[in-house]
């Protein structure tokens, strides 16, 4: 990137301080004068009379005394001037600090911008909450809104509309489903009770048991027709034809709490595949309901302690939370996919059909479910996720045909959550990797591009050849919408740069014509160029909401499909005003070569007023994540703790996207395949060393690294694999320390199996626990919550054991009953980190 190269060249320039040059010149002149006087003195003492000699001596003494006095006065004056300058500088610093980011506001996310708060439900209507916590229906064609759920509505003493965190409108727009009494479970899942509000009469209809007790429900999904809905209670699926019909049909009876999950994912599928609390999918007509089941009977249990409240009698004994959590090499949950014909539920024999997984995949993992017209499309991968099959299934016969098949020798498949289908179900769009040799890429490299597959019934799998619709050394990141009427596809890509994301439009009738960038020249209301975009389209693409999310304060704007701006949805004016007088760090980007014809992207946050000459040295803090397919270096807007440190503590903060990261081709992304904890760590160390050596203002002796989750793992390994002490100290928050302790689907996707026949040596090489010696002479802080269901507290305890047995001193901060995000202790957590860094950089 040009910015990075320019910045690198600037880093090599040595700019001398003119005041220092004048001082050196003055000193040299003084020494010359003194030499001349001494020479004169020696010459005179050999030739003149004694009287003249004494005159010279007297004059010399007077001169020396004068010089001493003048020097004293000069130094005193200089000291006074320097002291005054220091006072002025100190006074300016105090004044500047008042215009810096506030720690409390950062910790409590008060600089977080508003995001698009609506959901498209038709081609011109958005369901949303207004500023008064009413639920409203906004019309994009008339720019008007109607209240359909009033903020004063109460149920059992609860203001269920004003406090609603989850709400959905029925397809016929007669009922509003409101969740209340929320109880969080895992990242996406929760328990709640639900009330359906009749929009016309405002009558409340709670979902209750036959004896009138509100049900604690795990998920609810409206039918796409009318106001029927399906829900999951106690791990089983129920269906109601309409809200008015009080009869609920139980569709499954195999569900068991903490053992068999139907219509909802278990822990590992929720976290690593579906990213949702639901595993229910209605067909477009509403006649059929597909659902996934996950049998965890043979999946082993991870016991997590719960300590309770201090001083509470109920907390005398630690409680155990039993979590079905598969770990590498152990038994995985068994996934199955079924579909039920809802028109047959009146009969005793419910028309439920199993849709089998491909038989050639070993221990198949369900990777995605869609409907293509009235056929179910299921994506499956093998256990280690390097072979993929997409099947299209007849819901009547349960026969599934493979419509896409690919095996990777080096790499993996991410979950298939990006498939798009034509309304007749005969065409499919997806993001798929393709070679880009014609664009100058290496033969072994591939890039993710928009891809078209014709699913017409004629011909077999060999005739369904994926056709790349885009090409070049960039990444298509998301398919936004498919306008079949005008034959246009809208998508996001990094065509300009890996740090930039724009929206493009491609006409499928003329795919050889380059896509049109719809946001490359877009200016915000603050007259800033939008360089990082996202969008949400209406059902038939007549309108879209564009989110400009960087580099400036995010803005949300409503457009019609022609690109005409209709409404500034939210300009985040309050946030913009609060930042108006704040002096923020300067952001710069660099590209640093890392060998193998690859380069790392670097993002720097430079403290306000940073002296780039090198006369003042600044501490450097690397914030690392480093996981496969991740990326940090973008032009997205964000104000977080890292920015606060750069702004208030005069710390240079850097993000480094090296090998393993996404958006720069799959050769770079797959570099760490089956060997996590190697190349991505070396890149963090070596690029940090490059910054130390090429940026004159970086203090080599005060460099730290910190990260969370995979970033905590990367931090620990960066210290452990750093014998030359590039880093003085590090902070690992909730780190993985050995992949045998993490879940199967994530670990085995990137590492394979921890068996002698597969990749046991790779697991040993990737472990942090067995290579702690280089941490001995570094400052290290280990932070973890004991109730972390994601990266278990066990991980940090195993690392602590290794450090203690090696007699390596370190600091640790344990948070009882806190989960992976440490939400309940954020002030204490960040103050702990800040104090540790103060000590490190002292």
UniProtKB/TrEMBL annotation:
<dbReference type="GO" id="GO:0008239">
    <property type="term" value="F:dipeptidyl-peptidase activity"/>
</dbReference>
<dbReference type="GO" id="GO:0006508">
    <property type="term" value="P:proteolysis"/>
</dbReference>
<dbReference type="GO" id="GO:0005886">
    <property type="term" value="C:plasma membrane"/>
</dbReference>
<dbReference type="GO" id="GO:0008236">
    <property type="term" value="F:serine-type peptidase activity"/>
</dbReference>
<keyword id="KW-0325">Glycoprotein</keyword>
<keyword id="KW-1133">Transmembrane helix</keyword>
<keyword id="KW-0472">Membrane</keyword>
<dbReference type="Pfam" id="PF00326">
    <property type="entry name" value="Peptidase_S9"/>
</dbReference>
<dbReference type="InterPro" id="IPR002469">
    <property type="entry name" value="Peptidase_S9B_N"/>
</dbReference>
<protein>
    <recommendedName>
        <fullName>Venom dipeptidyl peptidase 4</fullName>
    </recommendedName>
</protein>
<feature type="domain" description="Dipeptidylpeptidase IV N-terminal">
    <location>
        <begin position="170"/>
        <end position="554"/>
    </location>
</feature>
<feature type="transmembrane region" description="Helical">
    <location>
        <begin position="54"/>
        <end position="74"/>
    </location>
</feature>
<feature type="domain" description="Peptidase S9 prolyl oligopeptidase catalytic">
    <location>
        <begin position="638"/>
        <end position="841"/>
    </location>
</feature>
<comment type="similarity">
    <text>Belongs to the peptidase S9B family. DPPIV subfamily.</text>
</comment>
<keyword id="KW-0812">Transmembrane</keyword>
<dbReference type="InterPro" id="IPR050278">
    <property type="entry name" value="Serine_Prot_S9B/DPPIV"/>
</dbReference>
<dbReference type="InterPro" id="IPR001375">
    <property type="entry name" value="Peptidase_S9_cat"/>
</dbReference>
<dbReference type="InterPro" id="IPR029058">
    <property type="entry name" value="AB_hydrolase_fold"/>
</dbReference>
<dbReference type="Pfam" id="PF00930">
    <property type="entry name" value="DPPIV_N"/>
</dbReference>
């Amino acid at each position: 990137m040009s910015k990075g190269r320019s910045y690198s060249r600037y880093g090599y320039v040595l700019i001398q301080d003119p005041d220092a040059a004048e001082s050196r010149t003055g000193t040299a002149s003084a020494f010359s004068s003194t030499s001349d006087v001494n020479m004169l003195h020696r010459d005179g003492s050999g030739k003149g009379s004694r009287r003249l000699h004494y005159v010279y001596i007297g004059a010399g003494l007077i001169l020396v005394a004068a010089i001493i006095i003048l020097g004293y006065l000069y130094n005193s004056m200089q000291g006074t001037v320097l002291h005054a300058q220091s006072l002025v500088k100190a006074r300016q610093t105090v004044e500047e600090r008042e215009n810096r980011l506030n720690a409390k506001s950062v910790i409590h996310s008060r600089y977080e911008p508003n995001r698009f708060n609506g959901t498209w439900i038709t081609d011109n209507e958005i369901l949303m909450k207004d500023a008064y916590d009413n639920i409203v229906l906004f019309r994009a064609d008339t720019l008007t809104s109607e209240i359909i759920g009033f903020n004063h509505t109460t149920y059992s003493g609860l203001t269920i509309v004003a406090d609603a965190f989850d709400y959905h409108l029925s397809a016929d727009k007669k009922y509003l489903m409101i969740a209340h009494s929320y109880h969080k479970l895992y990242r996406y899942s929760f328990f709640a009770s639900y009330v359906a509000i009749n929009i016309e009469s405002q009558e409340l209809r709670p979902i209750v048991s036959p004896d009138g007790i509100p049900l604690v429900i795990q998920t609810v999904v409206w039918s796409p027709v009318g106001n029927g809905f399906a829900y999951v209670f106690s791990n089983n699926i129920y269906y109601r034809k309409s809200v008015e019909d009080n009869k609920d049909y139980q569709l499954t009876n195999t569900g068991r709490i903490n053992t068999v999950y139907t219509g909802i994912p278990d822990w590992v599928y929720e976290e690593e595949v579906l990213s949702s609390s639901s595993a229910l999918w209605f067909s477009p007509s509403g006649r059929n309901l597909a659902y996934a089941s996950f049998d965890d009977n043979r999946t082993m249990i991870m016991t997590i302690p719960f300590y309770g409240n201090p001083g509470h009698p109920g907390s005398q004994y630690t409680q155990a939370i039993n979590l079905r959590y598969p770990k590498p090499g152990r038994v995985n949950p068994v996934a199955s996919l079924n579909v039920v014909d809802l028109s047959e539920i009146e009969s005793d024999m419910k028309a439920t059909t199993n849709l089998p997984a491909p038989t050639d995949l070993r221990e198949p993992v369900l990777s995605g479910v869609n409907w293509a017209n009235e056929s179910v499309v299921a994506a499956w991968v093998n256990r280690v996720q390097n072979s993929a099959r997409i099947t299209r299934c007849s819901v009547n016969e349960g026969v599934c045909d493979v419509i896409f098949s690919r095996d990777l020798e080096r790499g993996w498949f991410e979950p298939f959550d990006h498939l798009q289908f034509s309304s007749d179900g005969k065409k499919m769009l997806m993001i798929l990797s393709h070679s880009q040799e014609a664009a100058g890429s290496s033969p072994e490299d591939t890039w993710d591009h928009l891809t078209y597959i014709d699913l017409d019934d004629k011909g077999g799998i060999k005739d369904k050849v994926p056709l790349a619709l885009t090409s070049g050394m960039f990444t298509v990141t998301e398919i936004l919408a498919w306008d079949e009427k005008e034959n246009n596809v809208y998508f996001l890509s990094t065509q300009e740069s890996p740090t930039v994301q724009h929206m493009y439009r491609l006409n499928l009738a003329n795919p050889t014509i380059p896509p049109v960038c719809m946001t490359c020249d877009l200016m915000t209301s603050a007259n800033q160029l939008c360089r990082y975009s996202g969008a949400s389209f209406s059902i038939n693409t007549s309108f879209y909401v564009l989110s400009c999310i960087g580099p400036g304060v995010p803005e949300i704007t409503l457009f019609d499909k022609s690109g005409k701006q209709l409404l500034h949805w939210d300009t985040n004016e309050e946030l913009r005003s609060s930042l108006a007088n704040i002096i923020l760090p300067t952001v710069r980007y660099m590209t640093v070569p890392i060998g193998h014809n690859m380069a790392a992207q670097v993002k720097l946050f430079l403290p306000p007023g940073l002296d780039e000459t090198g006369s003042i040295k600044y501490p450097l803090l690397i914030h690392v994540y480093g996981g496969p397919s991740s990326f940090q270096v973008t032009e997205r807007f964000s104000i977080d703790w890292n920015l606060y440190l750069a702004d208030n503590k005069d710390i240079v903060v850097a993000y480094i996207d090296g090998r393993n990261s996404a958006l720069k081709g799959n050769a770079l992304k797959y570099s760490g395949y089956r060997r996590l904890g190697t190349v991505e760590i070396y890149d963090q160390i070596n690029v940090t060393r490059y910054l130390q050596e090429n940026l004159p203002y970086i203090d080599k002796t005060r460099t730290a690294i910190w990260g969370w989750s995979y970033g905590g793992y990367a931090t620990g390994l960066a210290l452990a694999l750093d014998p030359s002490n590039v880093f003085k100290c590090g902070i690992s928050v909730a780190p993985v320390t050995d992949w045998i302790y993490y879940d199967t689907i994530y670990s085995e996707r990137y590492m394979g199996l921890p068996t002698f026949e597969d990749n046991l040596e790779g697991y040993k090489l990737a472990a942090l626990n067995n290579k702690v010696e280089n941490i001995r002479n570094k400052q290290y802080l280990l932070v973890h919550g004991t109730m972390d269901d994601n990266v278990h507290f066990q991980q940090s305890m195993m690392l602590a054991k290794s450090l203690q047995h090696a007699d390596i001193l370190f600091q640790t901060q344990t948070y009882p009953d806190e989960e992976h995000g440490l939400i309940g202790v954020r002030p204490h957590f960040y103050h702990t980190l800040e104090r540790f860094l103060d000590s490190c950089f002292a």
